[in-house]
Amino acid sequence: MYYEPGVIHHGLPHDPFKSCVVPRPIGWISTTNQDGTDNLAPYSQFQNITFDPPIVMFSANQNSSGQRKNTTENVEATGEFVWNMATYDLREAVSLSSAEFPAGVDEFKETGLTKAASRIVKPPRVLESPIQFECTYLQTVRLPGNGVMGTVDVVFGRVVGVHIADSALTADGRIDILKLRPLARLGYHDYTSVVDVFTLASPMSEIGAGGLEGSPDRVSAALAQKS
Hints:
The protein is α+β, with helices and mostly antiparallel strands. It contains seven helices and twelve strands. The strands form three sheets. A seven-stranded antiparallel beta sheet has the order 3-2-6-9-10-5-4.
């Protein structure tokens, strides 16, 4: 089949676009508004952008009324947010926190999750989540779109603090992905979680694993040895 978005209809019961770009990490973002009320919401268009310094982004479409999401407004007003890893064990809470609650509603209370104090930023972390990033706001790129919810705010933040539960690490100091089973979004109402991992050699191995791991010091050392 072939279609052109907005020009030639795909002819399917549901738009297949989001199901083609999978799996997508979930940005489970906690914020605090200017009145001190906490907010928690998942965004299925989330990613790390670079590692030196570490920068992440999430994109938030408008709500069903065509207004900007509470998360976006909170981040821009306060300059801070926290990313919390969404896992299979937390799937029900993640889903519940995606509901379109009115501004000023604390999703931590609605989901029964526990708040954990952050060290650098004000928004709390999800205690039940095994990994969290404390982030400071960098900028928003606002992209116009079609329809009520088409416009999107792409929010960028710098990671200034990383929390990893000791239980999330293997004996040799790696993140135990199979134990954590991070959630990822597919299309439609479908999700997946990581239940299988394999290793694949890369040409980057020639300059050491540092680049793949996001360790700039190891990359520099490997390049120095080659020269």
